Every structure is written in C-alpha cells, then in structure tokens.
DNA sequence: GATAGAGAATTGTTCAACAATCCCGCAATC
DNA sequence: GATTGCGGGATTGTTGAACAATTCTCTATC
C-alpha cells in the first residue's frame, strides 16, 4: 500500500456482505427468526438430534448456535436437560420495561441526533396505516420500530443493538398472550403525540409523555400476561 | 409435592451453587478473568491449539467458550483467522461512555432503590482508602464498583449485568494506555460529592454532577487513549 | 522492492465414540 | 395409595480424529 487509498474505506464497508459467516451463525439466524415470529413458542424444547437433522448440521455446530441464542436470552440452557425457548416470567417483563424506559427516555431527552427524528415519524405513520387496515401484526411490528427509532436518537450503535435484542425478547412475552394482536393499537395516539413533539423539538415534553406511556403499557402488559398464562 | 412447601424457595435460591456449569463456561470464566486483569492484552491471538492444550480441553469445547466471549465483546472472531482479544477503537470508547451515561444518570435520577445508596458510599470509601495507600489498581477497581453501584440504583438485574459487561469491556481500554493506574484518582473527589448528594436524597443534583463527570472523564480518556496507542 | 506461487499451518465442520445425567415405568415398601 | 428405589433407554457433555477450506509464510522470480 503506497498510501491510504481513498476507495479503501468504501470497499471495507462491503466486507460484511462477503458471506464471511459461519454456519453456526446462519443456524442461529434461522432459529432466531423462528422464535421471533412465534413458530417456536416459549417452552418448546429443541433437542440436538431433531434440530440438527432438520437443519442438516452437525451437533457441534448446532451447539455453537444454541450458545449464541442463550446469550441473547432467547433460549435457556439447562445442564444435561437441553435447550428450551425461553419462557418469560412477569418479573422478566417488568425488568424488560424498566431498562427500556431508562434507555428510551434518556435517548429522547438528550436526543443527540435530530436527524433521526423522521424515522420515528415514519414508524408511527406505518403503524397508523396498518391499524386502518386492521393488520394487527404489522401494527405491533411498527410499534417496535417506533421504539427502536426512539432509542436510536441516542446515536449509539450499541444502544441500537441492545434495543433490537430487548424487543426480540419482548416478542416472547406476546407469544404467550391470548390476544397479542391488538395489544399495541391503543398506543398509536400516544405514539403520534410523541412523534409530533419530537418533530417540534420539544424533547423534554416528549420524554415525559414517553414515561407516561411506559406506566400504562407496562401495567397493562403485566396484567394481561399474568392472566393469560404468565 | 402435597402443597407448595415453604422452604422450597429457600433451596431454589441455592440451586446455582450446585456446580451445574459446563466446562465451556468454566473455560470462558478463566479467559474472561485473564482478559480483565490484563494478562491477555488486546490484540493477542488465541489459537485453538495452544489454548486447548494449555487448558486441557478439546477444540470443540474451547470454541464454545470463545463464542461466549465474542458475544460479550471481549474477543473478536475473524473468520478463518482466529480469535483475538478485542482492541477498542477510540469510537468504541466513546460509545461505551455514551451508553454508560444513559444508564447511570437515569438510574441515579429515578433512584428506585434508596436502600442501595450505602453501597455507593462504600465504594467511594474503598477508593479513598486505596488512594491514600497509593494502591492505584485498587483505586480503579473501587471506581468501577462505584459506577456499578450507581447503575444498581435502577433496581434492575438486567441493568446490573449490562453494567458489569460494560465495565469489563472498559478494562480493555485501560490495558492499552501507558499509565492507566492513575487515571481514576482525579475523580475521587467528584465521586465523594455524588455519594454525599445521594445520601442526602438530592438525586437530581447528583445526576447533574454525574453528567459533568462523564464530560470530563470521557474527554480525558479519549485523549489519553488516542495518544498512547489508541 | 514487489509479485506470484507452493507448501505449511490454522480454522471450519463433520462424525463417531463414550461418559454422565436425566427421564420414565415398574416393583417394593410403608 | 403415595412414596421410594431401581433399572433401561434416551439425551446431553466432551473428546478425538479426520478432512475441506482458507490463510499465512517463505522462497524464487522479475
């Protein structure tokens, strides 16, 4: 290398696309997706033999994938008993909301990245459209994207990843409720208010409203959760 | 079980002590410790053969341990090249401080768990004693415990674990600086002020001081980091 | 000094084996 | 009738060897 080439950074950005992922990671990817979309419901046991045969990978590779997802808290590993799709307790849900509240309200209040506000607005719009057409699953997805966008205001890659993980985990809670589809709809109005306040630059007020959202949503979710099989 | 026995919960709490850990986890434990205390410095490559022979475990088990630590961001895994002790960039350090600021200031401001304030005070005391006796390594440890105690005010097991992980990661930064020993000492006074404010119940003021701490510490650390081999 | 290629070393993945542990059903016991 | 003790079968935990894929190293070459 004669000097730092200007195009080097450009190509470096594409490095990730270069298929340099192990099979264990790809296996983890499909399992994660299946857990998130509910095909593998909480409590399900994943035996090494069945899963390995189904995905056509060796037991060792599968175990590597399992470890990954255990670390992400989507699976739990019981020694000599196997791995299971995690079943959240009511306390788990409460804690999940507690840390979300911390991250999201702080991100909104500090709001280091005003350029990311439009993404918040877009997520709210998607949710409203989905609700109008009664696509409840999409309403839920849009709602999660809304909160992801709020956390993203912090401008921290790491907060972003943490949020992604928290929301994936939260899906576990919805999958054991009897009517998860309509859980998010009531909050669409509140989301809209928060987004408008942010667009208007009123961060402190937006943070306050968000705090109120958490009070309401947490209480309702935990109640619904306890009732329907928590 | 005729009914839910009263002592069952008591024993359940001790379940963790029951040695139910895999060798992979134990291997991860010793590697983690070695990384944290600096015996394995950033950039070091851990070959499967050497490490496996040294710890007397098979390659498969070792790879499981590696995965664990990669997920904790203490190691990085390069496909077909091996695993290395992570080298933090200046941007990594900045992001680390950003999320710490979010978590700690929120925890202090909300302070759901006043009963945990004494732990904060104790950590400051330990730091002061260590500084008086010029045990700089212990000053650093006490400082980390101070911040861990601040985050613990949130009363969330999950925040606690996140903090532990963040601080472990931060050790990686100190290990590449030329004089990490004395980095924490200047902040002892500020720590004391924050602890006193908290003991006095003045949470909002404590949070403000903490915010100031982050401004100072981050700037100084990043500067020192960039200079000494960042 | 830079480049290309051959050979060595290392990682990625699979497979087979055995030990350790758990699960389930059945008999024995109180 | 409920609990306990005890097998046999199934599953996980861990190891070792094997081979493919990739990277590293060193030398020859220009």
From TrEMBL, chains A, B:
Coiled coil: none annotated. The keyword Transcription applies. Keywords: DNA-binding, Transcription, Transcription regulation. Residues 21-88 form the HTH gntR-type domain. Pfam families: FCD, GntR. InterPro entries: GntR_C (IPR011711), TF_FadR/GntR_C (IPR008920), Tscrpt_reg_HTH_GntR (IPR000524), WH-like_DNA-bd_sf (IPR036388), WH_DNA-bd_sf (IPR036390). This is GntR family transcriptional regulator. It comes from Saccharopolyspora mangrovi.
């Amino acid at each position: 290398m004669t000097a730092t080439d200007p195009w080097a950074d450009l190509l470096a950005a594409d490095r990730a696309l270069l298929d340099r992922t192990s099979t264990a990671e790809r296996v983890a990817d499909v399992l994660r997706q299946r857990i998130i979309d509910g095909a593998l419901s909480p409590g399900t046991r994943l035996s090494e033999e069945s899963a390995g045969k189904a995905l056509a990978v060796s037991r060792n590779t599968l175990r590597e994938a399992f470890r990954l997802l255990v670390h992400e808290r989507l699976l739990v590993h019981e020694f000599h008993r196997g791995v299971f799709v995690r079943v959240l307790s009511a306390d788990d849900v409460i804690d999940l909301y507690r840390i979300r509240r911390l991250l999201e309200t702080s991100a909104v209040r500090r709001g280091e990245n005003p350029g990311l506000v439009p993404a918040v607005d877009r997520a709210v719009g998607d949710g409203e459209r989905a609700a109008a057409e009664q696509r409840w699953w999409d309403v839920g997805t849009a709602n999660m994207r809304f909160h992801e966008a709020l956390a993203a205001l912090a401008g921290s890659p790491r907060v972003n990843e943490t949020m992604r993980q928290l929301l994936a985990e939260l899906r576990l809670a919805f999958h054991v409720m009897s009517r998860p589809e309509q859980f998010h709809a009531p909050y669409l109005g509140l989301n809209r208010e928060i987004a408008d306040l942010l667009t208007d630059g009123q961060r402190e007020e937006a943070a306050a409203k968000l705090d109120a959202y958490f009070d309401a949503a947490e209480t309702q979710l935990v109640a619904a959760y306890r009732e329907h099989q928590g």
